C-alpha cells in the first residue's frame, strides 16, 4: 500500500513564469526518458521479479519516481500558471494551449504524447535490470541537457539538480541489484537469461 505525503520531495517555488522553459522541462513529465515512464516501468517490473529484495527496490524507486513526476508537474505548472495571452503566443506555447490550456499533460518536448511503448517490461531478471540502468542514465542525460538551459534560473535549476542526483543514485542501486541477481544465478554472466533454460536443455538444438 502506498501512503501519500502532502509535500514535495524537494521544494519548488518558482517566482517568474517562463513558457519556453516549461516546454523543455515537460519532457521529464511525459517524454521517452521521463518520470512517468520510469514509475510505470519499475512498478510493472516488480510483479515478475523473483527476488523479494529486488522487487522491494523496484517498488521503492517506482514510488519515488511518482514523487518526481509530481515535482516536474509542479515546475511546469508554476512556470505557466500566470501567463498572459501575449506571452503564450510569443513563447510558442499557443499550440499546447489550444489542446490543454495550462493543464499539465504528459508529452515530450517535441510534442509527442506519452504512451506505454516508451518503457519495457520483459519479465526476465537480467533484461529488466539492464533496461533500468540504461533508463536512469538516459534520464540523467536529459536532466543534464535541461540544466544547461536553465542555469540562469535558480528557482528552476535547484529542483532539477536534485532530480538529476536521484537518477545517479537509482543507477547505482540498480547496479547493486544486478550484481545481487548475478550472484543468485548459476551462470554468472550478463547474457544468462535463465540458468534452468540455458543449462538444463531448455534450448533445443
Describe this structure as you would to a colleague.
- With 205 residues, this protein is mostly helical.
- The protein has a single domain, classed as Ferritin, core subunit, four-helix bundle (Ferritin, Up-down Bundle), CATH 1.20.1260.10.
- The chain has nine helices and no strands.
- Helix 1 runs antiparallel to helix 4, helix 4 runs antiparallel to helix 8 and helix 7 packs antiparallel against helix 8.
Q: Could you give a short description of this structure?
A:
With 205 residues, this protein is mainly α. Helix content is 62%, strand content 0%. α3 runs antiparallel to α4, α3 runs antiparallel to α7 (125-150) and α4 (52-80) runs antiparallel to α8 (154-184).
Number of domains: 1
Alpha-carbon Rg, integer = 20 Å
CATH class: Mainly Alpha
CATH architecture term:
Up-down Bundle
How many beta-strand segments?
0
Examine the coordinates and then state which fold CATH places here, giving the name of the CATH topology. Ferritin
Largest beta sheet, briefly? none
Portion in helices: 55-70%
The sequence of SSEs as H and E is HHHHHHHHH
Q: What is the CATH homology-level superfamily?
A: Ferritin, core subunit, four-helix bundle
Shape, per Cα inertia axes: elongated
Strand content: under 5%
Low-confidence stretches: none
Average pLDDT, all residues: 91
Which helices and strands appear, and what pairs or packs with what?
Elements: H1 19-25, H2 27-30, H3 35-45, H4 52-80, H5 85-91, H6 94-100, H7 125-150, H8 154-184, H9 195-199
Helix pairs in contact: 1-4, 3-4, 3-7, 4-8, 7-8
Amino acid at each position: 500500500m502506498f501512503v501519500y505525503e502532502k509535500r514535495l520531495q524537494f521544494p519548488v517555488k518558482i517566482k517568474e513564469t517562463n513558457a519556453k522553459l516549461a516546454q523543455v522541462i515537460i519532457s521529464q513529465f511525459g517524454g521517452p526518458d521521463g518520470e512517468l515512464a520510469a514509475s510505470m516501468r519499475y512498478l510493472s517490473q516488480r510483479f515478475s521479479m523473483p527476488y523479494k529484495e529486488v522487487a522491494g527496490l523496484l517498488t521503492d524507486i517506482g514510488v519515488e519516481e511518482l514523487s518526481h513526476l509530481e515535482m516536474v508537474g509542479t515546475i511546469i505548472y508554476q512556470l505557466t500558471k500566470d501567463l498572459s495571452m501575449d506571452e503564450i503566443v510569443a513563447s510558442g506555447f499557443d499550440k499546447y494551449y489550444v489542446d490543454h490550456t495550462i493543464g499539465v499533460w504528459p508529452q515530450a518536448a517535441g510534442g509527442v504524447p506519452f504512451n506505454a511503448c516508451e518503457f519495457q517490461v520483459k519479465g526476465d531478471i537480467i533484461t529488466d535490470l539492464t533496461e533500468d540502468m540504461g533508463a536512469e542514465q538516459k534520464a540523467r542525460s536529459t536532466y543534464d541537457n535541461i540544466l544547461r538551459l536553465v542555469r540562469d534560473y535558480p528557482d528552476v535549476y535547484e529542483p532539477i539538480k536534485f532530480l538529476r542526483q536521484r537518477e545517479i543514485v537509482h543507477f547505482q542501486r540498480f547496479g547493486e541489484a544486478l550484481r545481487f541477481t548475478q550472484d543468485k544465478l548459476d551462470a554468472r554472466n550478463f547474457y544468462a537469461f535463465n540458468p534452468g533454460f540455458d543449462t538444463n536443455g531448455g534450448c533445443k538444438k
